[in-house]
Amino acid sequence: MDRALVMSSPNVCSVTNGGNLWRRKHSTNNYNYPSLQQKRKTQIEYNILRSQSLNHHYKCIEGGRTYQESNIKYVVKAAPAIPSFGSESHASSPKNIFDSVKNFLAILYNFCYPYTMIGRTLCTISASLLAVEKISDISPLFFIGLSQVLVAHFFMDLYINGVNQVFDFEIDKINKPYLPLPSGKLSFTNAVFITVSSAVLSFGLSSIIGSRPLIWSLVLCFLPWTGYSVNVPMLRWKRYPLLAAMIIFFSWGIIFPITFFLHMQTFVFKRPVIFPRSLIVTIVFSSLYAIGIALSKDIPDIEGDKKFGIHSFSARLGQKQVFWICVSLFEMAFGVAFLAGVTSSACLWIKIVTGLGNVILASILWYQTKYVDLTSPASTRSFYMLIWKLFDAAYFLLPFIR
């Protein structure tokens, strides 16, 4: 077999004919000597070029074994490289797709102001539970009705937060450079697309569901919050502190609790319209707290607001005065919930839970006020996030007040 390989090799052809060439050189018939010498030279150049192209160095000596082993080594080294490359490519593709989706969801999460969406979600659950009159009401029908509101308002929240960031793009470069839009993590075009698509999806889902309280809830959120953010003549209401505070008060204090309750009461349970004591307590609590949120949200953003001509209460009255007005409103809200809880017609343990729970929340708020540095945007922003966390905790207590 070695002989067959030797005879088939182009290198060996010139080697095995070496004796004949020597004899021809000394014979009288040597007219082919120049052509054979040229052929041999061409063959050697061909072999050198071929060895360079394969990136494999081997010795060209007489005999076929060295050439054969060189080729075998090259094939053994090169063969695994092809499947290895393909396997790595296929293995990395799902990971790249997963990472891209994960990054997009993280950007979307920060784009939609998650603390407001969490608060609105808990508000939906709390107001819906106010329509529950007996344990059997908590049924699949209840959860279907709850899901209808949660999904439709999720897209409306995305629109409200999105349109605010789109028109506050320049201000957020100063006040909130960490957001996806001013930081460059989300392009302006994609932000506009997400915002518009969210509004379309929200109204589309509500029209399919067919609940009038839900449709009114979305309309009454869409109109004032669009006017709050959009920078066109007669709009951009956030420039007027009293009007801006009224929009936040109207949304969180009136629209959310009433429309969420009526959706569950009239559309899901098919019961007549009523305004129970628990709903009235929720409205009063949410209204006081919403006014405090409306005033305190501008405390960390005073620098950018002044530069772009937005005369908030913090810019007009000063951060310290507005801060203590907000703290007073929050404490008043917890006081209303405390009194309503201890005078509730529910059993004793519910009175204890609702009364003690609101005392604890009010105490946490008061205790944290002494650690707030009003000259530091980071400190005031941290306090603002604490306000939302306490608001969220209060929603767990409100449904027990009857």
From TrEMBL:
Transmembrane stretches, start-end: 141-160, 186-206, 213-230, 242-262, 274-295, 322-341, 348-367, 382-401
Major place of residence: plastid
Keywords: Chloroplast, Membrane, Plastid, Transferase, Transit peptide, Transmembrane, Transmembrane helix
Pfam family, one: UbiA
Superkingdom of source: Eukaryota
Family designation: Belongs to the UbiA prenyltransferase family.
Designated name of the protein: Glycinol 4-dimethylallyltransferase
Organism listed in the record: Glycine max (Soybean)
